[in-house]
What we know:
The protein is α/β, with parallel strands linked by helices. It is built from five helices and six strands, in the order βαββαβαβααβ. The protein has a single domain (2-96, 134-156), classed as NAD(P)-binding Rossmann-like Domain (Rossmann fold, 3-Layer(aba) Sandwich). It has helices spanning 11-22, 51-58, 74-84, 121-124, 137-144, and strands spanning 2-6, 26-31, 42-45, 65-68, 90-96, 152-156. α2 (51-58) packs parallel to α3.
Amino acid sequence: MKILLIGGTGNISSDCAEHLYQRGHEIMVLTRGTNPVPAEYRSIIADRKDPVAVRDALKGLDIEVVINFLGYLVPEIEIDFAAFNGRISQYIFISTTMVYAKPHCILPITEKNPVGNIYSDYADGEIPQRKVPGHNRQAVAYLFKTMDSEPDIKRRVFICGPA
Length: 163
């Protein structure tokens, strides 16, 4: 598959890219160009917050799947929708369980759990700054509901890496 990672040079996304590449997928990384991208991948340089730059950088590319590691604000998700609606078969949104209210009132945790973790600045800071509660789950679901397949929203509970 031809897979585009938005934010593919971070700790988690770079491991994900390598894992997919090792399994035979073609990897493209949308990046600002400040961090190196492995030569085996296609580096696509654009500021993901600039809709014109994203549109121009992606022009003519054949992309099947998008994995977004950097969707924090509603306008960023809107840029994704404008760039990928009708072009891709799957949109995967990577997030974190930190957005859910604590203590958890429903187990197991699902997308139906209440959001607004008062113990975390990361989660709590989403609402006042016009970020969508639940780490953009509503924006992702609303914007991408017109696609052939529903968007996948994956939330990390623990982040482990080489150390």
